[in-house]
């Protein structure tokens, strides 16, 4: 069932989204060669606790997962696309890190992700990140009253194919509100003019995932969570929570 939010409910989601943005900014500032992924998770935990928020990630266990997720961020390095579990693995100069984070505040949820280079960036990584971010911007721009979910999917997928990137099948964005994952599902590729009609008050998490090698194929690691590119190429994952309004898309996960 798709839930339409009131203006007041979207304002509450904006506050949850602000906490997510603060956590992501703090994690990116702390990320450096020699820092462990577990230490970055502790940084995010501190931001959430300081804001009086909880994590929708911690303890989450969808049907595919063998164990509940043990952290408040997903930390995915290099060829890891998403769902990376923070461990004692220490970052190295030139690593590409994707961080996904959520926050629940006063019963409402925000969800966002970012990808950035640790230390010295590789030019090809900078292009991958820039193209993924541009695809997210295109998807957000398509999230207007009168459009459909397929218009968002088409904007993201077209950007991927123009850039020669792969797009994982069966993964994409989603509705969001009181729960982290609500209807509708938002594929990262699709046909324009198809799918659920966008209405004011619809809250969506739009999240392109681009695979640098051009193949769509992925595999899941031994932890049952982390998804990797099949060809070993690097990946980027960038996400924002937005609301569809009469005035255009409203960004809910900004500082």
Give the beta-strand count: 13
Helix content: 25-40%
What separation lies between the terminal Cα atoms?
30 Å
Largest sheet: 5 strands, antiparallel
Which strand order do you get reading across the main beta sheet? Answer: 6-5-7-12-13
Shape: globular
Enzyme class: hydrolase
Protein name: Type I methionyl aminopeptidase
Keywords: Aminopeptidase, Hydrolase, Protease
EC number: 3.4.11.18
Q: How would you explain this protein's 3D organization?
A:
The protein has helices spanning 7-30, 37-50, 123-141, 149-163; strands at 73-77, 80-82, 96-105, 108-117, 172-175, 182-187, 203-206, 209-211, 218-220, 227-229, 235-237, 240-243, 250-251. It is an alpha+beta fold and 255 residues long. Helix 1 (7-30) runs antiparallel to helix 2 and helix 3 (123-141) runs antiparallel to helix 4. The two termini are 30 Å apart.
Features:
255 residues; single chain; alpha+beta; 28% helix
Layout of helices and strands:
Blueprint: H1 7-30, H2 37-50, E1 73-77, E2 80-82, E3 96-105, E4 108-117, H3 123-141, H4 149-163, E5 172-175, E6 182-187, E7 203-206, E8 209-211, E9 218-220, E10 227-229, E11 235-237, E12 240-243, E13 250-251
Antiparallel strand pairs: 1-3, 2-10, 3-4, 5-6, 5-7, 7-12, 8-11, 9-10, 12-13
Helix pairs in contact: 1-2, 3-4
